[in-house]
Specification:
This protein is α+β, with helices and mostly antiparallel strands and about 550 residues long. The protein contains 22 helices and 11 strands. Strands 1, 2, 3, 4 and 6 form a 5-stranded antiparallel sheet that branches. A 4-stranded mixed sheet has the order 5-10-9-7. The two termini are about 65 Å apart. Keywords: ATP-binding, Cell inner membrane, Cell membrane, Kinase, Membrane, Nucleotide-binding, Transferase, Transmembrane, Transmembrane helix, Ubiquinone, Ubiquinone biosynthesis.
Length: about 550
């Protein structure tokens, strides 16, 4: 009953904001068009399609708001006007009861909050759709924040994502862009992401890894995880004190070097992606602060590490070379790299892909470098490659979304930011170091023991491989013989079917020729049977005999 009421609420919201206009009616079956026809009586108003979709998500509550936020990070799938509207979604949720929060913390940690903490603030510090945060002080005097998952949220998420899945199936089947947008895949991705956010130990592990990567770094500070107080549904972190990165007035009031701050954001991104291969993938402004110390050498502070990303070594290499080739306007190499990386099928014609990339990129690079958006260049490149059957690479989409966030933030802080001036030397240095003897020696030390362990098995593996090749050759020959035999049988069956049709036609023709005589009962001893009937009947019987 609860699911039914929720479904009715979704349908009512769908009708209220005329979301049916987002679906091409021509692809719908007649009965569904008939059901949607009354919606034409509801005026759509002057709101854009993106605004109507945003308002619908806001009306349906936190889970749909977070889904809209996810869609706003998928410019590879959604049109720009909808992306712009969904980016404005804010996860504003009233806090849940403070006694329930305390009970949840106490149940997870096995003691009362008064015993666990020297001081515990029962009024929430922040509240979102999935979790709520309270301030506290440990017995050793350290200030911390306590984050706990909303009670009962798993049931709500399960119910709403199940309904979202049904809606996605309808959209994929009947929308003109259903196959390209892959809404079912997007919903499944969202379900995985939001359930991952419910595991606060996972977030704590991500935070711990990022903190270790940037330990003693002047670029980025990650709060310390208090592991003794962290469980599946409760996370306790060091409390940070910083200026929200969007508060330009406060940053300028303390004489922050805005140019260096913007450049360091870019450096942090490339360091995470290429050196650490572990990047914070949810770096929107709400999760970023700036330290109040050393404004002339500003340091970022990042929180909320629920979503992280990484690339394999091949993707790292091809991405770096793609970026360098693009900014050198070597479109031939960009096309070749797409094929070599496996991002597009190997049978893709290099000349056609090169021409398509040139058509997209050349107008962009006519602008001054400081006006070029790295993220949008990558987005344009991926959109172009999709015409050549490029599969969406989830890890690259996550990276591109993070790059767009960093770029937008950097230009907000310092409008004249030249992203390429910071990125170019970094990429050149990284590619050079990748093949440096010292790096190769490090790889040898890391993987050498494993190679030596497997080396004695190499002759045996080669022998087995040759046997498998011979076996495959035998299977191939057997398959070919089976295919030829099946073809012969099909040809014989085809001939028999044709003979049967011809025999049936001949016998039917002979019957038709003698039908008038049969109806007048004048046929006696075959005296009035036309010769043609004898010929056709005989031919039919002969064909039947041949068919056997």
């Amino acid at each position: 009953m609860t699911s039914l009421l929720r479904l009715l609420t979704i349908l009512f919201t769908f009708a209220r904001y005329r979301l049916d206009l987002l679906i091409a009616k021509g692809n719908l079956p007649w009965w569904l068009r008939l059901l949607l026809a009354p919606l034409a009586l509801i005026p759509a108003g002057k709101r854009s399609r993106g605004e109507r979709l945003r308002l619908a998500f806001e009306g349906l509550g936190p889970i749909f708001i977070k889904f809209g936020q996810l869609l706003s990070t998928r410019p590879d799938l959604m049109p720009p006007d909808i992306i712009a509207e969904l980016s404005a979604l804010q996860d504003r949720v009233p806090p849940f009861d403070k006694t329930k929060f305390c009970a949840l913390v106490e149940h997870s940690l096995g003691d009362s909050v008064d015993n666990l903490f020297q001081q515990f603030d029962r009024e929430p510090l922040a509240s979102a759709s999935v979790a709520q945060v309270h301030a506290a002080v440990l017995h050793d005097g350290r200030e911390v924040v306590v984050k706990a998952i909303r009670p009962g949220i798993e049931k709500v998420i399960e119910q709403d994502t199940r309904l979202l899945h049904v809606i996605a199936q309808v959209v994929e089947r009947y929308s003109a862009d259903g196959k390209r947008l892959r809404p079912v895949e997007v919903v499944d991705d969202y379900r995985t992401t939001i359930f991952d956010e419910l595991d606060l130990q996972r977030e704590a592990a991500n935070a711990s890894q990022l903190r270790r990567n940037f330990l003693h770094s002047p670029l980025l500070y990650i709060p310390e995880v208090i592991w003794d107080y962290t469980r599946h549904k409760v996370l306790v972190l060091e409390r940070i004190s910083g200026i929200p990165v969007t508060n330009i007035e406060q940053l300028q009031a303390q004489n922050t070097d805005m140019k260096k701050l913007a450049e360091r954001g870019v450096e942090i991104f490339f360091t995470q992606v290429f050196e650490h291969n572990f990047f914070h993938a949810d770096m929107h402004p709400g999760n970023i602060f700036v330290s109040r110390a050393h404004p002339d050498q500003p340091q970022y502070i990042a929180v909320d590490m629920a979503i992280v990303g990484s690339l394999n070594r091949a993707d790292q290499y091809y991405l770096a070379r793609n970026m360098l080739a693009m900014f050198r306007r070597d479109y031939r190499q960009v096309a070749e790299l797409h094929v070599q990386s496996g991002w597009v099928p190997e049978h893709t014609r290099i000349e056609e892909l090169e021409a398509a990339v040139r058509t997209v990129c050349e107008p962009i690079f006519e602008k001054p470098l400081k006006e070029i958006s790295f993220g949008h260049v990558l987005l344009s490149l991926f959109r172009t490659a999709r015409r050549f059957n490029m599969e969406v690479q989830p890890q690259l989409v996550l990276l591109q979304k993070t790059l767009l966030n960093i770029e937008g933030l950097g230009r907000q802080l310092y409008p004249d930011l030249n992203l390429w001036a910071t990125a170019h030397p970094f990429l050149e240095r990284w590619l050079k170091n990748r093949f440096h003897p010292k790096t190769l020696w490090q790889d040898l030390k890391r993987y050498g023991p494993e190679w030596m362990e497997k080396f004695p098995e190499v002759p045996h593996l080669i022998f087995n491989g040759l046997q498998q090749v011979q076996h495959l050759d035998g299977l191939r020959d057997e398959l070919q013989r089976s295919r030829e035999l099946a073809q012969k049988r099909e040809r014989r069956a085809s001939v028999r079917r044709r003979l049967l049709l011809a025999a049936t036609a001949c016998i039917a023709g002979s019957v038709l020729l003698v039908w008038p005589e049969l109806t007048h009962q004048v046929v006696k001893s075959g005296q009035h049977i036309p010769p043609a009937a004898w010929v056709l009947g005989g031919a039919g019987l002969l064909l039947l005999a041949l068919r056997r």
